[in-house]
Amino acid sequence: MRSRIIPALLCCLVPLSLLASPLSEKVRQHRVAHEQELVAEYREFLTIPNVDADQTNVRRNAEFLRAMMIRRGLAAELLEGKTSATNPAVFAEVRVPGATRTIMFYAHYDGQPVNPKEWATGLDPWNPVFLTASLAKGGKIVDGWKPGDAINPAWRLNGRASADDKAGVFSILNAYDALVKTGGRPTVNVKFIFEGEEETGSPHLGEIMELHRAKLQSDLWIICDGSRHVSGRKLVVFGVRGDVNMNLTAYGAKRPLHSGNFGNFAPNPALRLVSLLASMKDDNGKVLIKGFYDDYVQFSESERIAVKEASFTDTALLQELGLKQGEVPGRSLLDGFELPTLNINGIASANVGKTATNVIPSTARVTLDLRVVLGIDWRRQVGRVTEHMQAQGWHVIDREPTDAERAQFAKLIKVEFEPGYNAQRTPLSLPIAQAVIAAVQSTTTEPVMKLPTAGGSLPLSIIVETLGVNVITVPVANYDNNQHAENENMRVDYLWEGMETFAALMTMP
Amino acid sequence: MRSRIIPALLCCLVPLSLLASPLSEKVRQHRVAHEQELVAEYREFLTIPNVDADQTNVRRNAEFLRAMMIRRGLAAELLEGKTSATNPAVFAEVRVPGATRTIMFYAHYDGQPVNPKEWATGLDPWNPVFLTASLAKGGKIVDGWKPGDAINPAWRLNGRASADDKAGVFSILNAYDALVKTGGRPTVNVKFIFEGEEETGSPHLGEIMELHRAKLQSDLWIICDGSRHVSGRKLVVFGVRGDVNMNLTAYGAKRPLHSGNFGNFAPNPALRLVSLLASMKDDNGKVLIKGFYDDYVQFSESERIAVKEASFTDTALLQELGLKQGEVPGRSLLDGFELPTLNINGIASANVGKTATNVIPSTARVTLDLRVVLGIDWRRQVGRVTEHMQAQGWHVIDREPTDAERAQFAKLIKVEFEPGYNAQRTPLSLPIAQAVIAAVQSTTTEPVMKLPTAGGSLPLSIIVETLGVNVITVPVANYDNNQHAENENMRVDYLWEGMETFAALMTMP
């Protein structure tokens, strides 16, 4: 009995720092000495609104970021697109004598739109504060904290982009700085690129790559985005799903109608839309749209093994999410990554609850999110959804209906979408892929998890197609960071650990 | 040919005033002489917000209304409920020597909630302005109009409650005033009651009637609410549907989830809710909930005849509404009044369009409106909808789910409703019903339309059940007044004609 207990106790008693690499230890010591400055700068960065459509503020972010890089000795510059419609990327490079590899480090500094009313009391997307823990676990705002006060690494920093993806910028830039300031240097040529349009699907990343092709060449892009393994273990991800959003608007009468005076007479566009949506996916999570799963590339044997290693019983996750079971009972979270998705991001028609009125609404709207996987082109998937609507008797238009169309078609629906992008997967077997895994493993005593694809999306296919390079993702955020939603937050200790991870990646053999 | 043209021309050339009764003519002359004062007072009345939950402002309305009545020589008083939770009714009475009948004139001074963002540019629910015509027909704000300027009777007055139902208050009080000021007097004992809670289903009207039973006794209540016939003809309505709203909230995970990271794993409550809603009603407008149409009392033969007289081809209405066909192709608007309804008043989950984010929402909400007809109890109808949800595998709760419930039930739905009320119908054959029809007919050369029931709802069953009186409705608003929605508006000429109608009703033989 004793022999089994003692090693377990030892494992708890030995500080993790003693088990980490000398490089990680150096980075950590540097961080401890400069924690207050790092946090002060990061909080200021988070106060600048970074929603893509708000171009003035997005550019303020870019300028702030450039200044951060210049403070770290980097000759940073803004990479502009062809017109002012493009939010700039921020770029810098460090050439290392004798280096044989060039690695591009990527993060994005833009964030998802916010609806401040949905954020918890006291939380403001643009005023970062510390929480004692996640809100779901009873976390509260750390009252009275002021710059200079100690920062508990178990806290979380709350704010839009605190995790997605200014945390990537933080990890990459401060890893480099810590490395250099502690007397080290990269072993590879290091390039930095921070994008400002990722959250709208990187509409101009291809354009920026075309315009600045020479600068952006490298052997590998390492993306810092997304979240670590649910277990908290570090993670390397070799691919992403592609993505496209569709906005649908169903039309009823030209004006909202009294639900008594016109009830049983005027068609209700909300009812017609829910009927359409219900026809798209069954209660077992299966999409019923014709051809939706055609063409997808199944996981290879080595990819299946990696997924199996990274798998976990869903029990704790389901409990934490407050769910009895997943959408498809028995299918694990990771197994679902192999398949495309159809999600309702949001639906709206007139008002509900206290502001509801007794009306037959004039329109009903839904935003769909379609994730695509290797083998499925996003344009084709949009086409399949559109054909499904037509097969259900809907007349599809791409703008407001005319009176003539209203008179001709009983079921009118507007379909809008911005360009999407396809999935990407880098084979795990490549030597550079194995080198990345080894570098991340050097910073932790826990086994590093590998995923052939993330559930989420990044426009990596654009990079692969335009520059012909490999792409691998190394996330730093906690999996429960609420990215893309209200109350987004980032664990402080994961910010610190992100610095160690990226310092190791900059010193790969 | 000539003989066919001349009468048509004559009809257009002869002022309508020459065809109306001497009483109507007197009321009209009085109105023309006092138009500016009437409009000034009415516009001021409309500026006071009257949403039920805003009790402070609702009481300001009540006080304003009492002052209006006092200015007309009426000893008006507020009828309070048991607690301050009740918005007061405003009451007065006029005893007429020799009168054998007592008639209560009812309107309500509260209004539906507003979402000012949904109102057209330049229109404000609480700042009444004139429009040249309905917005749907290209109406514009009458720029530069100021008190004292001429008022075109073809204009509309825009603002919350301009039609529903402060127009009722306007018609009743100004009919009485014009009658008295022109040397006439009522032939019946006249009582006035103006309610302040109709738009939330008159939750305390029964209480007020209990507390003030003696004052509220009469032979007949005449309700001024709703809208005239689609043709513009005057209308008498002998019943209403009952009504109850249900608010449903479907639950997914405890927090919104990234649609990529959790897509194909976490159930989407919006998708589950649309599936439930789609199961409630088919594409042909038939409600599929078990027993939904049971027990309803069909129209009698005389009621069917009245409906047939009031019927009209739907072609122009459909065109005006921008619809190819009704919910049930071939079923007319009025035929649908015989049946109960199931309507989606509004639906909401996360955000759509430009503010949408790639999330699996944590909740999805819908507000349903159930209209009931004679023979169907609203409580029973709510029960049928609830049983339908249970039959579809939903666990129904009446508050937020506990962790234990989340762990136990895959499909959780919160059901909330405020008390509703039942339908009411007064037989057309009663002598007092015939007297009302005759009085309204005396004010117009066009045939008066009769409807056994309105499509809409008023809590008339409460009056009938509590006081044992008959109830008949005489509407004054234009049918396209946008009541309960944005851009509510009232035709100016219909305000004027409402005065004439109610003066005739106060002088019934």
What is the general shape of chain A? globular
Q: Tally the beta strands of chain A.
A: 20
Instruction: Classify the oligomer.
Output: homodimer
Mean pLDDT of chain A: 93
Total helix count of chain A? 13
- As a percent range, the share of helical residues of chain A equals 25-40%
List the helices and strands and how they pair.
The structure is a homodimer of 509-residue chains.
Chain A: H1 2-13, H2 22-46, H3 55-71, E1 77-79, E2 89-94, E3 102-108, E4 129-131, E5 156-158, H4 166-181, E6 189-195, H5 205-211, E7 220-223, E8 235-237, E9 239-240, E10 242-251, E11 257-258, H6 269-278, H7 301-310, H8 315-321, E12 341-350, E13 359-360, E14 363-372, H9 378-391, E15 395-397, H10 403-408, E16 412-416, E17 424-425, H11 431-441, E18 449-451, H12 460-467, E19 470-473, E20 489-491, H13 492-505
Parallel strand pairs in A: 3-6, 3-7, 7-19, 8-18, 15-16
Antiparallel strand pairs in A: 1-2, 2-6, 4-5, 5-20, 9-17, 10-14, 10-16, 11-13, 12-14
